[in-house]
Amino acid sequence: MVRPYAVKGRKHKKRKIEKVVEEQKDEVLEAEEEEGVKEEEAGSGGEAAEAEDERRAEEAVEQMAGIPIMPPVEGAKKPGVIFVLEKATLEIGKVGKAFHILNSDEHAHYLKKQNRNPADYRPDIIHQALLAIFDSPVTKAGRLQAVYVKTDKGVLFEIKPYVRIPRTFKRFSGLMLQLLQKLSITAVGKREKLLNVIKNPVTRHLPANSRRIGLSYSSEKLVDLNNYVAAAASDDVSLVFVVGAMAHGVIDKEYADDFIAISEYPLSAACCLNRICGALEQKWRIR
Ligand SMILES: C[S@@+](CC[C@H](N)C(=O)[O-])C[C@H]1O[C@@H](n2cnc3c(N)ncnc32)[C@H](O)[C@@H]1O
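^ thats the input. predicted complex w/ S-adenosylmethionine below
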């Protein structure tokens, strides 16, 4: 069953959320004025480059119209898992005439001119992390309850478990841009929001009967994840795993019931999520 996405704006979205997103745009525009970026980029050959940028942006949005969602899986009443991905670098920038999700590969020049460190702009981390979750047998078995992503600018959004995450970075980037501009994305002909910017803090969206487990390489509590999950998972508790989607730094551990390291080595977010899903599959006998 294939249903396409549609992007839907919402005029009366809560002011607080709009403010955070607007602040992002304002920051970028102010920085551009200071740096005189516009003139440089619109210089010789600039118009052709801008036209190409716009053509690509439109193409990315057109491609999104064909992205399907997965049909909901029966039996989702069994205990499930929730993921919170923190500090994702999803920041909008106006490069030339078009808005983009800034990334270190394509926008290094633009970022350096604004005295920003390109290495901090890694939206590929959250892309890989989401693919690790949504491709997992845990998700395919209907045990994924929700995914929350918090950007390092403080924008919080929810992704419904049956969304198909775009597999290419370009399409993913286009989807994130639309989400942060319009604040929600719905399926065509449906009212339900597949991706939706929501109010902070994330704790207000977590079930009361949940166990929140934060992951960090810096934690002194090094666990065997399979044993840990086997002991923590039960029929009446939802497990919430909090993983960082940034290149450097530590997650917010304020709301975590436990704070664990799962390896003696620093791992990528995607690797951690693969391990978590693997441990849950073992516990829940998902083959
Ligand atoms: C690239 S790391 C960020 C590095 C960060 N210094 C840290 O806290 O591990 C992305 C995320 O992967 C998780 N992570 C990486 N290595 C880990 C480990 N050995 N144990 C537990 N979590 C880990 C953390 O949630 C981290 O925020």
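The first strand starts at residue 5 and ends at 7.
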